[in-house]
Design goal:
The chain has helices at residues 3-32, 36-48, 52-66, 72-85, 89-102, 109-122, 132-147, 154-181, 185-198, 205-222, 225-245, 252-275. By secondary structure, the chain is an all-alpha fold. It has three domains: 35-86, no CATH class; 109-177; 183-273, Methane Monooxygenase Hydroxylase, Chain G, domain 1. Helix 6 (109-122) runs antiparallel to helix 7.
Length: 278
């Protein structure tokens, strides 16, 4: 690195450090200002400019001064939104909950009720992880719909419930697929059957049924000789059920392969058992 370039980098870093230090001193000075009305105006300016960290600090500082005033509801409202905009969704949900307890008759109650549920949705993790917040989001969105039947937010709430439900379905699918990938075929068959029962209207329902068939077929193959006929018969039964339920499925040809193979195995095993001397 050339001397000139090093100097430029150091200069930029120095300016940044000085700027941060200046901001820190400015905020300290503002927070020490005894004029609560002035600080409220500054907090409002920060909020409008989307400087939510600064707005949050000032709102928190002035709350005790305005607790019995008409401005308090608006301060609390924006303070809660600061947490939301800073992606502190757990804190935002708690603040929205407190808002509804403090201002139960507020004209913003419906909005805040929705935002509580939405905070749980924002905390919903990817499908592989624990889905507690996903379930809470679904429950709270449904409660919102039931509590506010005429709300224009109900369509979005319904869409979010569908998104959450799809995530839960994905999680259950991944769990069932893991059993299959690990060679635990009986457990996979049970898991895919439970998945199909839980989401019978899924666009992947026929695929889940195919995985039930594949799982039980592999399980039958690995079974001890005296159990194979019984377990291949279960595969045959699952195949017939597939054809009845999904006659137009793209997986029908593959299911027919498992059906034919299972029936052939049953014939061979039955003949062998017949030939075996008593």
């Amino acid at each position: 690195m050339s001397i000139l370039l090093r100097f430029s980098v150091l200069l930029v870093m120095s300016v940044a450090v000085m700027s941060l230090a200046g901001c820190g001193k400015s905020m300290t000075k503002l927070l020490k200002n005894p004029d609560a009305s002035y600080k409220l105006r500054r907090a409002e300016q920060f909020f409008v400019k989307k400087e939510y960290t600064k707005a949050q600090q000032v709102y928190e500082d002035i709350m005790p001064f305005f607790k019995t005033s008409k401005e308090f509801e608006d301060i609390y409202y924006k303070y809660a939104y600061c947490a939301y905009h800073l992606s502190d969704f757990m804190n935002a949900e708690n603040l929205y909950k407190s808002y509804l307890e403090i201002f139960p008759t507020s004209g913003r109650a419906e909005e805040i009720d929705y935002m509580r549920a939405y905070c749980y949705y924002k905390q919903s993790p990817k499908a592989q992880l624990d889905q507690t917040n996903t379930l809470r989001a679904m429950g709270m969105m449904q409660t919102f719909i039931n509590t506010h039947p005429g709300s224009p937010r109900n369509k979005e709430a319904t869409d979010i419930i569908d998104i959450c439900r799809a995530k839960l379905e994905t999680k259950d699918f991944l769990s069932a697929q893991l059993y299959y990938d690990l060679g635990q075929f009986r457990a996979a068959g049970v898991a895919f059957t439970s998945l199909l029962n839980a989401y019978p209207e899924s666009y992947r329902a026929d695929e889940y049924k195919l995985m039930v068939i594949k799982s039980y077929f592999r399980f039958a193959e690995m079974s001890v000789e005296e159990k194979k006929v019984e377990r291949f018969e279960q595969v045959v039964s699952e195949c017939f059920e597939f054809v009845d339920r999904y006659p137009e499925s793209k997986w029908k040809k593959e299911v027919d392969t498992f059906l034919n193979s299972s029936q052939n195995n049953i014939k061979i095993l039955t003949n062998e058992q017949t030939k075996t001397p008593a």
